[in-house]
Write a structure and sequence with these properties.
By secondary structure, the chain is α/β, with parallel strands linked by helices. Helices cover 29% and strands 31% of the residues. The chain contains five helices and nine strands, in the order ββαβαβαβαβαβββ.
Length: 189
């Protein structure tokens, strides 16, 4: 069986600007594009420094590593695909990203069974669109102690899908649509 060629996505800002992240094009993996990431991190600029981040569907690691590149204190990257995990670990080693923690797990199971070792300041929710996982993630994040008091939650969804019903404590701050992707930023409180 022939292996798929590796894809690449580049880090667009911070200390690793221009560095390329390799990823395996597995089903449902769609790295956040440069334009969307640039907008997202412009939104997060005032709070990214020293933030503790959680990337629940890490895939290529573009969001977690970009956050670290721009000054986040830590990034926990959750991914279940073994090939994607292998490449995340290779990228972690190449970047010397000592403040990244890669966890091989199903994101929903991890949220259900893990006790947060620290609350996260920024949560990235970019699941495979076809699996309709956003609602379950929102519900679990609201029920568990993963969110810092003033946490920010970023989510991407297919622009043709209805947004999830978010907890009443989540205030919508920003929303944009680029092509088939609608992306939103919320804040707790």
């Amino acid at each position: 069986m022939k292996k798929s060629p590796l894809g690449q996505v580049r880090i667009i800002g911070g200390m690793w600007r221009g560095q390329k992240l390799n990823f395996i094009p597995v089903e449902g993996l769609r790295p956040t594009g440069d334009r969307i990431r640039e907008t997202l991190f412009n939104w997060l600029t005032p709070i990214i420094h020293e933030a503790h981040c959680l990337d629940l569907f890490a895939g290529s690691g573009a969001l977690g590593f970009e956050a670290l590149s721009r000054g986040a204190s830590s990034a926990t990257l959750i991914e279940q695909d073994p090939e994607a995990i292998n490449l995340l670990q290779q990228n972690q080693t190449r970047l010397k990203a000592k403040h990244s923690h890669i966890v091989k797990a199903n994101a929903l199971e991890w949220l259900s069974t893990t006790k947060a070792f620290q609350p996260f300041d920024i949560i990235f929710l970019d699941p495979p669109f076809a699996e309709s996982l956003l609602q379950s993630c929102c519900d679990l994040l609201d029920q568990k102690s993963f969110l810092a008091a003033n946490a920010y939650i970023y989510m991407e969804s297919d622009s043709n899908q209805s947004p999830p019903v978010t907890p009443t404590s989540w205030c919508a701050l920003k929303e944009k649509t680029t092509g088939q992707v609608t992306y939103r930023l919320f804040r707790i409180g």
